[in-house]
Amino acid sequence: MLSLDSFAxxxxxxxxxxxxxxxxxxxxxxxxxxxxxxxxxxNPNILDLIGxxxxxxxxxxxxxHGAFMxxxxxxxxxxxxxxxxPWVYRAYHNRTFSFDYFPLELRHWIAAVEHFIPTDRx
Length: 122
Prior knowledge:
Blueprint: H1 4-12, H2 19-41, H3 46-49, H4 55-75, H5 78-94, H6 101-116
Helix pairs in contact: 1-5, 2-4, 2-6
C-alpha cells in the first residue's frame, strides 16, 4: 500500500490539462452537478448509500467536489487532490456514507464530463 506521501508524489507526475479544458469544466459545472445530483437521487438505494443523511448533504458534497476539482484542474495541482481525497473519503464515511457511494458518485461524474464537455475540450 502506498503512503500518502508516495501517492502525492506520483500524483505530481500527472500531466497538466490545457487551461481551455479546465475552463470548460468550470463553465459546465452547474449542469454537471445537477446531473450527478439527479442520477444519484434516482438510485433506489440512495438513502442507504448516504447513511440516512438528508439528500442535501449529498448535493452539498457534489457542489464542493465540483468546485474543488475545478481548482485542481486549473492549477494542475494533483498533489492537492491526492492529499485531500483520503480525508474527504474518511470524513464522509464517518458521517455514515457507505464506501459503495464513492465509486458510484465517480461514475456519474465521469458520465457528466462525457455528456456536457465537448470532446475537443476534454
